[in-house]
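Pasting two entries for a bug report.
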Amino acid sequence: MEATKTHIFRINRENFEIMIKAAARIIKDGGTVAFPTETVYGLGADALNPAAVMKIFRAKARPADNPLIAHVASRRQICEIAEEVPACAFDLMDAFMPGPLTLILKRKVVVPDVTTGGLDTVAVRMPDHPVALGLIRVSGTPIAAPSANRSGKPSPTTAAHVAADLTGRIDAIIDGGQVRIGVESTVLDLTSPTPTILRPGGIGIEDIRGCVDKVKDAGGARGAGDMGAMRAMGDPGDVASAGISVAKSPGMKYTHYAPETPMILVEGTPDSVTTSISRAIAEYHKKGSRVGLMMTKETAEQVSGDENLILCARNDPGAYAHNLFGSMRYLDSLNVDVIIADGSIQSTGVGAAVLNRLRKAAGHQ
C-alpha cells in the first residue's frame, strides 16, 4: 500500500481537548486513528463509512471476513446501530459498561457490511478510557476498531507497539501511555438462544454469570481452539457477496497474537510445568538454541533460560495479562530461538483470556 504520513498525538491533561479534536477531524474525514483503550490500542475509523473501514483492513492486512467491533460512547449510540437490544443487554450495560465487554446484537441497516463481515449482527462495546470515549464523542460516530497491530501479531499495549507495526500505514496515533488491562474485551453473543461467550477477555465468565442467569461458553473462556468455538456456535453465516463463512466475533477464526519467534506453552500442575520447562530448556540447549522464558515468580525460582521475564505470581493472572503482549514483543527483539510460556496461572477470571491468547500465540503447541 502507498505510504501515509503518520502523525503522533502525545496527549496530556493540558492538550487533551486540542488533540482529541485534531484526531476526531481525521475520523470525520474518513481517516484512521490508533487510540488507547483500557484493553489494548485500537485502530479506529468511522464505523458507518465503508471506505474508511476498508482502510483498517488494508493497514492491518486483515482478512475481510473478520468482523470489527463498533466502539460507542453511550447507550443511545448502541440503540442507533442495533436493531434488537434485549433486556439482559441493559443489565449487562449497568454492570460492565464502560468496560471490557463486547455485546453481539442484531444490527440495523445503517451499519455497512464491511464493518460486520456481512453478518446480520454487530459487535458493540463502550471502552473505559477517557481518550477513547472523548474521540468517539467528538467524532460524532461509532468507531470501528480492531487492535492496532499488523494482523496476527501480538496486540499493542503502548503507542510504540502501534508505531512499530503501522507507521506509514495509518493517519495518526494517539499516545495515551500503556493500557491498563492488556488483553482484549470479552465477547458475549446475545443473539443466540442462550447468551454465549465467544471470546474470553477482561471480564470473566464468573462475573457475567452473576449478572445473567444462563451463560454458555463456546470454548473460548476455557481457552479452547478456534474451530471448537465455531462448531459450538454453528454456522455463523456467510458474506452475501462471496459465500465466505464468517465468525461472529473477532479473534475466533485466524491465528492471532503470535510473536515472530516460535513459541510453546506449558500447562499442567505447578510441579509438572516446572519439570517440563526444565526438560525443554535442556533439549533446546543441546541443539544450541537460545531460550526466552515468560514465567510466574514461582516457576522462576526453579528454572532459568537465556532470557527470563517474570510476569506475575501464579494467583495474579491480571498481572500476566498486563505484561503478556509486551513480553512477546520484547523477547522477539532479543532474537531468541524459541519462547517458552508458563501456563501455571489461575484459569479463572482474566486468567481464561490469558490462556486463550497463549494457546493461540503458540499455535496450540
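Entry 2 (this is the one that rendered wrong in the viewer):
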Amino acid sequence: MKLIPKQKVPSFKKSDTVVLFIGEEEAASRGKKMPGTFSHIEETIDLSFFKGKRSEIIFVPLADKPNFILCGTGNDKERDAESMRRCAAAVVSQCRDRSIERIHVLVPPMKNMDASMALSAVSEGLYLGNYSFDRYKTNKKDNGAHPVSTAVLYSSAKNASSILKDTEIVARNTLLCRDLINETSEKSDSRGIAREAASLAALAGVTCRVFGKKEIEKMKMGLILAVNKGSTRPPQLVVLTYRGNPRSRKFFAVVGKGITFDSGGMNLKPSGHIEDMRTDMAGAAAALYTIKSAAELKLKKNVYAVLPLTDNMLSNDSYRPGDVFTAYNGTTVEIGNTDAEGRLILADAIAYTEKVLKPACIVDIATLTGACLVTFGEIIAGYVTTSRDLGSLLEKAGEATGELIWELPIHKDYEENLKSDIADLCNISSEKNAGTIMGGIFLKNFVNDAQWAHIDIAGTARSSKPRGYRPKNATGFGVRLLVEAIRQWND
C-alpha cells in the first residue's frame, strides 16, 4: 500500500471513495455528524441508525457524488492509538470486500491525541489491516484478496511525510514477517531463512555472517546440534549486525528462536497441535525484520540480530529423553523432553551473543511455551527479565505499539525445579506447572552480566481468528515492539 500525505482537502471526484471517522459524541448531535463540506450526506441519507461505536462501519454509495465510508471511533474515553488502528483496519476490510483500490482518508482532530499520533495510528491500521497470505491461491479474486493500493491521508500534522514514511517501513516489514512465518517449512527452512538474512547485507550499515554445521560443531554448540540430530537439513546460526551509531560501542541484541518445523521429536506432537508448527520460527522472523526496519529507518543505534535455525524432527538419529549434551558455555543439560527444544537452541545463541558479541542488553523472543498461551491467550505476550530498566523500556514500547507484554517473576526458588540428577540442568521442570516461568529460568542460566529479557510470543505470534489489524494465522508480533524499544533505548 502506498501512503500519501496531504493537508488541504480538495473537491473530490464522484469516482472517489472518502473515509470519515465519527465519534459517538458527534453521532449523537443531530445535524453535526458530518464536517461542513460533507453535510449533503445527511441531507441525502437518514443516518440516525449510525451511533459512532468503535469500528462501526457503513458504506454510502452515491450516484453523482463520491462514495463514503463512515467509521465510528467510539467515545472520548476509549479512543486511543490502538483503537484507531483497529478502526482503520475495519475500513480496509470494507474496502477489500468491495474491491476499492484507492481511498481518501480524513484524519480528524481528536481528544487525547495530537495530530501526529492520530495520523500514525490510522496509517498503521490501514497498512497492517491490508494483508492476506494468498501466494498459493490459484484464483485470488475468489478469495477476498483485493488489497487497497493507495491511501491518501489528509492531516494537519506538520511532520506527516516522515510519519508515513516510517509507518510504511515498519508496517511493510511486519507484513514480510507474517509472510515468512506463513510460508511452508519446505521454503522457510534453516537455509531459506539464512538466505533471506544474507540479502539484508545490501542495506547500508548491515553485515551478515552465517555459520554452517561444521562451524557450529567447532564452536561446540552442543544444544543446537542436539536438536538438529534428527534432521536431514543442516543447522544455521545467523549473526546480523547493524551499526547505525559508529560513535557508540553499545549494541542492542535480539535473539530469535528459529525452529523451522517442530515435530516434538521423540516426544511427538499429536494431531491438533503439530499442523501449525512451521510457525515455530516466529521469533527468528521478528528478529530478522526488526534489524531490517532499524536499518531502513536509519536509526542511530547499533543492533545485533542472532538467529539459531534448525527443525526438530523425528528419526533414528534424533536426540532422546535422558540424553545429556554440553552447551556453548560448558553447562551440561539433560533432556527431559525433546519438545522443549526452543530453549536449547536459544541457550547456545544467547551464551554466544553475550560472550562474543558483548552487547549491552539481550532480548530473546520466542514461541517458547504452550503455558504462555494458556495464561495470556492470544492477546498479550509474557516476559521475564533481570533488568527493571530493560523491562520498563519494553513495556512502554508495547503500550505505544499495541503489542502488549506482561512480566512474570523469576524468583530463585523456581531454580530447584530445573536441577538434574545426572547433569547441571534439565530442560524441563520436575513439576508440571509455571511452564512459561520455567522456560525463562532455564534461559537465565546462559546469561551472566548483560541486561536480559525473554519474551514468550507463543500466544501472540499466531491468531486463531482476525482481530482488528491482526489477521488469522501469523501476526508479525514483535517487530513493531522491538523497533520502538530500540528507537527509545538510551545507548
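Dev reply: Rendering is fixed now. As a check, the viewer should reflect this: DSSP finds 14 helices and 20 strands in the chain.
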